[in-house]
Amino acid sequence: MISELPFFLNYIIPFLAILTVIVFVHEMGHYLVARWNGVAIDAFSIGFGPELIGWNDKRGTRWRIAAFPLGGYVKFTGDMNAASVPDPDTGRYDPAIRPNLFANKSVFQRMAVVVAGPAANFLLTFLILYAMLLGYGRLTLDPVVGDVVADSPAAMAGLESGDRFLSVDGYDIRGFEDVQRIISTAPERTVPMIIERDGDRLDLSLVPRTEITTTRFGRELKVGRMGVTRDVSEGDIVLYRPGPLEAVGMTFEEISFIIDRTLNFLGDIFIGRADLDQVAGPVGMAQVSGEVATLGLLALVNLTALLSLNIGIINLFPVPMLDGGHLMYYLYEAVRGRPLSQRVQEIGYRIGFALVCTLMVFTLINDLV
User: Fold this and answer.
1) pLDDT tens digit string along 116-127?
2) CA-to-CA distance for 165 and 188, rounded, in angstroms?
3) Residue 333 known to be catalytic
């Protein structure tokens, strides 16, 4: 049982293992594209704070593992700090190295370096999901309605026993598990669907009701329910193994679904409809990592793919200090032909720092409460 082991082994080790992989891949994306564009790099760090282990490579880059492993950074020569705030006085550097300063690269080169981190996270997610799909296939169940619960959203929408789901919320349906996943992540949303009944295609829509469910680890979640049941016998579940080309499309569909649901949830936060109890910080992520670790290595790898994608998405938000904030500055520079003033950039970084700190404090309090 998970409770028989110390907290450190149960939760911290799996969490740090996942986070280290995700951070390394993200920063390696920045690093490789920067190297390809001839950018001089001072340091590649996993974690922040005092250095625990470090070494210099032949190019003079310091590779380091720091004491606080909740993140990481690549520090380019000419940056004032780990947040990539540029040094306004690049003239003080050796003339021989000035062409290699990040700040002196073209705006499109800088944009490529910034985008490379989140792109690396997306690539990691794709490779994991693609490999798991090819290696293990997918258990699927015929997407046919068994029974419809009276007075449920499904009954009010006109669903009947024997209806076959073809499309739900814009997603093609391969199995009943697709329907369950889409509906469960769309409580109180209008969900359009296309069904087949007696050879005819019908367009319907329903609004799943919110229901509180408890996971196998005792965690309460708010999910959507439409009121459809499906009897399952041993022979109904089929292992589907796609070919390499089909698996590419299925993997992109999976990634598209995760992105869509993540953005919808974040949008719900801003309009006050989301369940903030589901917003997790480091403590919550550690708990989830520990719980998932009890399900086996594959479950932990799958969680790594999910978190990697979400970190890639969040890093693209137009918030100074995040990659999206830097990209916003560079897009402005590309359009106007000149960078934002140093004063405006500094104000932006301070606002971004305040937002990130506020989010960290909120998620930590949310985890503990």
Assistant:
1) 999 999 999 999
2) 20
3) no
